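REVIEWER CHECKLIST
Item 1: Sequence provided? yes
Item 2: Single chain? yes
Item 3: Sequence as submitted:
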Amino acid sequence: MGSLEDIEIFDPLFFNISPSEAEYMDPQQRLFLQNCWTCIEDAGYNPFSLSGSLCGVFVGCAVSDYNKLITDPKMYNAYALMGESVSILPARVSYFLNLQGPCLAIDTACSSSLVAIAHACDSLILGNSKIALAGGVYIINTPDIHIKMSKSGMLSPDGHCYSFDQRANGFVPGEGVGVLMLKKLKDAKKDGDDIYCIIKGWGVNQDGKTNGITAPNTKSQIRLQTKIYKKFNINPNDIQLLEAHGTGTKLGDPIEFEALCESFNKFSYHKNFCALGSVKSNIGHSATAAGVIGMIKIILSLKHKVLPPTINYNILNEHIKLENSPFFINTKCKSWDIKNKKKRMAAINSFGFSGTNAHIVLMEKIKNNENIDKFINNLPIFMVFPLSAKNLSQLLIYAKLICNYISKDLKNSTVVKGITDAFSYINSSVQYK
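Item 4: Structure as written out by the authors:
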């Protein structure tokens, strides 16, 4: 299982939450709140500068099992009620930063976070949000999910996820959290933001009445993918990487593969040009966070211009006919080379066992903002980064993290520019600076 470390570590006073209330907070609430803060800083913004803005918060999440750890009914109080509430999870972010755009908790099972990102895109287009924080979180606090999945025959008996492989034998549960900051492209350019990538197209649909409420449906997946390609004028022939749902089940993977082949073949008859992979073979299936984690994998691949390998793959699933398809399984990390001055482009699938499907297409970012290049060329020999924290131990930890981060990529102009933007302010409400 891909487990997150240190999920119990949380500084409640930083977020103006009392320690007694924090004890009752679902770890998913704590982690999402922390990661939203980190996401905003990574974008080069002071999180408090978003106060009063039309910033939407969209999160894929589900009811946690954390409340099952409270075995004594006498311990239940108002904090316990808020601590386990799904609706409170995104509201923590909006409340702390005074964000006044839409605030939605979305549960469509495994597709939740990608559906949340699609809704964030819709909100930006409709003008309901000027900025959006979108992602997902999933934490396993008790053995319940393993017991239930094992009894239903869904769990991999050897604890490995074999996406597209003959050994595919079931789910491997995992944990995860991820957040993206989204803007309209024209607004990001105007604001001089460092852009990781561009969302080229997106969409969501539902299977409706099929063979079973939890059964994946090929026709529904094809409808969604082809609709997106037509609506956003995308030729699948230009997609070089496909992050599949790829849960590593003997029949689920072939159904997804069949749908992808038919969708691609409606537009192109080229063969073996698109790398197929799934992050679930690396970290397991992080349920409501799976979509955003797969999307972050693609974003980093676009940033570094590499095609990531698919692990745990040796022999092709007998139900998948790869040879004459648009796809190939990439098993080695290699340079993402392109021809004819095309843009690097990738797509991601995410399907919920509720029957709700999501599909998003990404394209590599445009050239760095010229202001960033001018900035790095005129860097002084010495630079001052103002840091602030609510106590001395926080300040020392913060300083160490920043030093480690800068030393790894000091020559990267966007890294230095982002750091100087993010730390060009001092939080006057804290004691240590």
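Item 5: Key structural point noted by reviewer: The two ends are 40 Å apart (CA to CA).
Item 6: Recommendation: ____
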